[in-house]
Amino acid sequence: MKHVLEFEKPVIELREKIVDLKQLTDSSEMDLSDEIAKLEKRLEKLETDVYDRMAPWDRVQMARHPERPTTLDYIEHLFTDFLELHGDRTFGDDAAIVSGIARFNEQPVTVIGHQRGKDTKENIRRNFGMPHPEGYRKALRLMKQAEKFKRPIITFIDTKGAYPGKAAEERGQSEAIARNLMEMAGLTVPIICIVIGEGGSGGALGLGIGDKIFMLENSTYSVISPEGASSILWKDAGLAQEAAESMKITSYDLKKLNVIDGVIPEVRGGAHRDVEKQAQEIKQVLTDSLNELHTLNHDQLLENRFKKYKNIGDYSYLDL
């Protein structure tokens, strides 16, 4: 891994030291097994101290990790026969949103998700995962197609927000997101939404109306970024860490607030450390959710979805 977050540096340094000692043992006649065993025990305790007690700002940094798995990474590990479909049939294609049809446990599904890049060139092509209105219209086209063919919809949310540029506004950014909210609320097929990184503002909500909403443990979901909130509230973007504490944007906070249905545990050290293992955690949640939702008819599905959003939020947790 090339990128190390500030709060996890002690863990990474100790881990690298253990690797160096193991290599030295292999390449010489020195027996360092006792020293290695002691360091490994120390590493286990250190990982517990660091990763099991992460502050909200630490989780914000983890959600933004440049090596964090993207929608396409999870598609590769979760689905078979994925066929990507392009274009909104009105303006063009938006690479910031990936959408298509696939099989999940041999069942046909529609998969839609935000897609950011992993290097500068790809980030520019995908607009850093910030969709234009044609991206949301493409997503809606695929959702309506899923309803027609009775395919469940699975969305992956990972965006700082919808693109706020002039061209996007001219092509109806707000209307496109609002229409997705309205249409998703009334779709007669199961919808499962998973926040895999940053879930930012309306850009996230445009794919976020579902029967089940889950978050990876180190993801965030909020109306605004901590930097944006601190700039507005305290006129100082440097207070983002304090804002993250007060905004309740982490998965555990949002579960207590009854905004999401569940938290998906992450591989220790972040999902990027073992994408395949992380995908298995997601697969189990998807399997259980689809089995539950398939027992409901159209009317029950819509009624439960309506009740879910009518009753969303448990403000007693905030202890105001």
From TrEMBL:
Record bears the keyword ATP-binding: yes
* Pathway, per record: Lipid metabolism; malonyl-CoA biosynthesis; malonyl-CoA from acetyl-CoA: step 1/1
* Keyword Lipid metabolism attributed: yes
Highest taxon, organism lineage: Bacteria
Which molecular function term from Gene Ontology is one that the record holds?
acetyl-CoA carboxylase activity
**Signal sequence region:** none
Q: What class of enzyme is it?
A: transferase
* Cited Pfam families: ACCA
- Principal localization reads cytoplasm
Please state the Enzyme Commission number of this protein.
2.1.3.15
Reaction(s) catalyzed by this protein? Answer: N(6)-carboxybiotinyl-L-lysyl-[protein] + acetyl-CoA = N(6)-biotinyl-L-lysyl-[protein] + malonyl-CoA
Q: Where is the CoA carboxyltransferase C-terminal domain?
A: 38-292
Mind telling me which residue stretches traverse the membrane in this protein? Answer: none
- Subcellular location, record wording: Cytoplasm
Q: What does this protein do?
A: Component of the acetyl coenzyme A carboxylase (ACC) complex. First, biotin carboxylase catalyzes the carboxylation of biotin on its carrier protein (BCCP) and then the CO(2) group is transferred by the carboxyltransferase to acetyl-CoA to form malonyl-CoA.
Outline the subunit composition: Acetyl-CoA carboxylase is a heterohexamer composed of biotin carboxyl carrier protein (AccB), biotin carboxylase (AccC) and two subunits each of ACCase subunit alpha (AccA) and ACCase subunit beta (AccD).
Spell out the family assignment given in the record's similarity comment: Belongs to the AccA family.
Protein name, please?
A: Acetyl-coenzyme A carboxylase carboxyl transferase subunit alpha
Organism of provenance: Halobacillus kuroshimensis
Q: Which gene encodes it?
A: accA
